[in-house]
Fold these 3 entries.
Entry 1:
Amino acid sequence: MKYNLEHINKAFESKVRLGIMSILAVNESADFTTIKNLLNLTDGNLASHTRSLEELGYICSSKQFIGRKPNTQFSITPEGRKAFAEHIRALEDFLKNQKL
């Protein structure tokens, strides 16, 4: 039986975006530096992926200063949580249906 991959969300095909969403799905929020260090990314790489996820409405950011240093916090949106859960469920279903 062939399995339809239509429920796999292309936004999460990148391992970086999958990592960002995984971190934010289990934490209320995470700051830029924490995510960068956990995923071993460059500033530019993380910035481009978070921007893409923000444009899709899956995450949101807030900027503040802590002392004199800028701090960007990210959190998952309700839409992002739903989309990510559906993606994980689709992956699980795909894996369950791979028996020959």
Entry 2:
Amino acid sequence: MTGKPLSIAALAALWLTVPAGAVELQPHRASYDLKLTGQSEEVEGGEGRIAIELARPSCESYSLEYRFVARFVQASEITVTDQRTNSTEATDGRRFTFETRTLLDGNEQSEIRGSAVNENGATVVTMEAPASRRIELPASIFPMQHTENLVAAALAGRSVVETPLFDGDDEAEKLLTSTAIITPVAKPSSGQSKDVRPDKGAALKDMRAWRVIESFYNKDSNEDGMPIFETAFTLFENGVSDDLVMKFEGYSFEGGIASLDYLDAPACP
């Protein structure tokens, strides 16, 4: 890239002009088995599981149910974290509603609930929990449109995508952004994870795929430019992901699809 870098607002404006329906995500239900890797001295072991259901209740919206349960072994004690998210997102990228509950050993620790709209060159967030408040952000992309944009960029041969994001974080003022590096996968992946259900390979057979390495930044990113969170995954042209790596502070999870089923989608014009 040459010349003056685009501002966050300009980047958002660019993405918000992507025509609705340019890329459509395949509704699906999937589970992922994860193992703990790169753990710190405090974390002796662990495992995780992600379950998602991406539905298309109408031509105007997506709905997502997401659950991530992780089991940690620390000093011979077992801790279980359970994050549950439900969200809906307009297919034109203009409106997003979200609710996330986090449990620790079965006890609720936090709840985040609210909505956001993109209007007049800004993203306006209305939080209902943990406290009622209104936040105005530079124009930002919501999660489903972000996935659509990654696929669109990959299909267009782009290798770097920078995006301002709002994903339901209650610290929205910290201005989350993403930098994704996209490289083609030489052959469509049939899954590299162990103990994968046989029909998964058939569901993804012959699809174009890319390896995406994505780093997330906000005002908490350190002076050396290190991200607050990193992930890598194989992204298929229908929006399904596999072969996950999730890097947190002091530990990471790796794994892939354990089950995958496609869901019906409405016939949209």
Entry 3:
Amino acid sequence: MPLASSQTGYFINNSNNHDGYQGFWEPHTSSIDFCESNYLLTHVIVEPHNVWSSILGLSFFGLVGILYGNPTQEWRTFLIYFILLIIGIGSACLHASLHWCFQSFDELPMIYLIICALYAVLEVDTPRGEQRYPHLPKYLVLLSCISTAIYFKFQHMYVIFFVTFSAMTVMIFCLHVQIALRLHRENRNEKRNRKEGSRVFTNNSIALRFYALHHIAYALIASPIWLLDQFHCGKLLPIYNSLPFPLRGMTLHVAWHICSGLGAHFFIQFLCACRASTLGMVCETRRVLGILPVVVIESKHDESPTKKQS
């Protein structure tokens, strides 16, 4: 079990940002503390704003994706959204307690989500029921086991998780860009041949729209916010704590939760639009709750998506 907070070198440590009373979850055993002042609003929940924003910003998008965001009805999409749902719950538990057990409940699913996304990206153009890389699932399961072992070995060193997750994210990013460039070339060829209304052009246009939204939400907003909030906490904390109730103590980490969850949703919908082309379907978009765009199937050509496949 990881060492208690008094013995752990925190990546960011604000565990004493309360008025001297003992909080319910102390001593904290997570290897990271966040900028929100601990027990500022209640002695029972360490970081209440980060708790509700984990559910709203992560689990909400996972639930919406499970219910409305799987137009091709494939297990790969369901699994990624289910893991996103779990991440939100784990994140809420971590922020509520700063306990090592709940930290792993948050961070390990983040690694698993990247691994599942790797499968979805590499098999994005494979016909239903087939596999371009037959041994890929076994290798990814092995990678998950190795990542889990390394994670628990070094859980007390948050930087190990940070570097591992960041490197895997960059790898997915590179593959993501390659797919988008191919779609852009296909659409350019379709325009040259004056086939703007074709299935390929329609699906690619929708996919590229989600591609752009993903980068706006995650790369341009969420990631800079996380870095700003973590590394400039000392300057921002007095501003956070001076906000009027009920915003008192709310940090930019709230925006990170919401924008990162939104970015993940856009990334998955990008893959859904790509899969629609592979499966011979024409897709369009509609808005869940009048706000959140998702891919839906306009018509079916080659195959029926009713049976879930990996």
